[in-house]
From TrEMBL:
Domain of life: Bacteria
Species per Swiss-Prot/TrEMBL record: Mucilaginibacter gotjawali
InterPro entries, per database record: Aldolase_TIM, FBA_I
Protein name (record): Fructose-bisphosphate aldolase class I
EC number: 4.1.2.13
Keyword Lyase tagged: yes
SUPFAM superfamilies, sorted: Aldolase
UniProt keywords, alphabetically: Lyase
NCBIfam families cross-referenced by the UniProt entry: FrucBisAld_I
Length: 335
């Protein structure tokens, strides 16, 4: 295993108060978000949007790594400079989403399994050659009165462990993302119980597949009440539940945890991360950071609207959100 290289990549990704930017929306997801924002859904607009992001002034001061979608790694600015090269020049490690989305899991109505293990070894070798040094695989788990089923959790966590082992073998740091979705009326306690179960199974599977916990980053959901639960939880309560859940299930050897935002507003995602740092300062075995997509990009996308004349103001917003997340990592965020 290329342990020195994996270790250096992790050091770069977790450095200082920086975090990750997930800009790896698949074509379908990107089109959906563009449609909602009134932006034309074409490959050229995807490219222009990603150009706006990677060329945002100062991005490298806030962001340590950017997760890209396969479409993006071959794209370049209008002047012909590859996005990967722009990121590297800004001191941002380029990474790649390697799962191939989800499909219905046979035998488990309403549940999904993530695809992408076939041919992954070869794809990882190619991505390594292109200079990509970390990867992401997302598993999704739904909550309802009867979900999630044990078989769904086991199949998804097994796939995550197989992926992580292949990444480490290729010299690529795996970002391991078991996302418990926010949809539903469930309460915070239910999210805590499901997230805890999922993470326990995940670490059992990682152990079973000989994945070295020193060379991965966990990307979990925060512990929150469901989106349609009418009773909101306080910021401190979410921070406490999230950290306690992680303390129960994530071994101290894991170097870092980088949260997804999962559909929370940008402000709330930042406030929750901040409260974790304020309330648990000096008490956590791992670095706690962010790997947000919507909570960094959404406000900028709404300003950009697909228009050249809005690029500068959208870039400022992107930088603003990312720098607030840096403040949250220091426990110094004020809304
Ligand atoms: P959100 O922060 O929008 O949840 O996205 C994170 C991500 O990478 C999902 O896979």
């Amino acid at each position: 295993m290329k342990t020195k290289e994996l270790s250096n990549t992790i050091k770069s990704l977790l450095a200082g108060d920086k975090g990750l930017l997930a800009m790896d929306e698949s074509t379908g997801t990107c089109n959906k978000r563009f449609e909602e924002a009134g932006i034309p859904q074409t490959i050229e607009y995807h490219r222009a949007y990603r150009e706006m992001i990677v060329t945002a002034p100062g991005l490298g001061k806030c962001i340590s790594g950017a997760i890209l979608f396969d479409e993006t790694i071959h794209q370049a600015t209008k002047e012909g400079v590859l996005f990967i090269d722009i990121l590297k020049k800004a001191g941002i490690v380029p990474g790649i989403k390697v799962d191939e989305g989800t499909t219905d899991l046979a035998g488990f109505p309403g549940e999904k399994i993530t695809l992408g293990l076939d041919g992954l070894k070869e794809r990882l070798a190619r991505y390594y050659q292109l200079g990509l040094r970390f990867a992401k695989w997302r598993a999704v788990i739904s909550i309802s009165s009867v979900l999630p089923g044990r078989g769904c959790i086991e199949a998804n966590m097994h796939a995550l462990a197989r992926y992580a082992a292949l990444c480490q073998e290729a010299g690529i740091v795996p970002i391991v993302e078991p996302e418990v979705l926010m949809d539903g009326p469930h309460d915070l306690k239910k999210c805590f119980d499901v997230t805890s179960r999922v993470q326990h199974v995940l670490f059992d599977q990682l152990y079973g597949q000989n994945v070295n916990l020193k060379y991965l980053i966990l990307k979990p959901n925060m512990v929150l009440p469901g989106l349609s639960n009418p009773k909101p939880a306080s910021i401190d309560k979410v921070a406490e539940a999230t950290v306690n859940c992680l303390l129960q299930s994530v071994p101290a050897m894991v170097p870092g945890i980088a949260f997804l935002s999962g559909g929370q507003s940008a402000e709330l995602a930042t406030a929750h991360l901040n409260a974790m740092h304020v309330n648990f300062k000096g008490k956590l075995p791992w670095a706690l950071t962010f790997s947000f997509a919507r909570a960094i990009q959404q406000p900028a996308m709404e300003l950009w609207k697909g228009k050249d004349e809005n690029v500068a103001v959208a870039q400022k917003m992107l930088y603003h959100r990312a720098s607030l997340d840096n403040a949250a990592r220091r426990g110094e965020y004020t809304p």
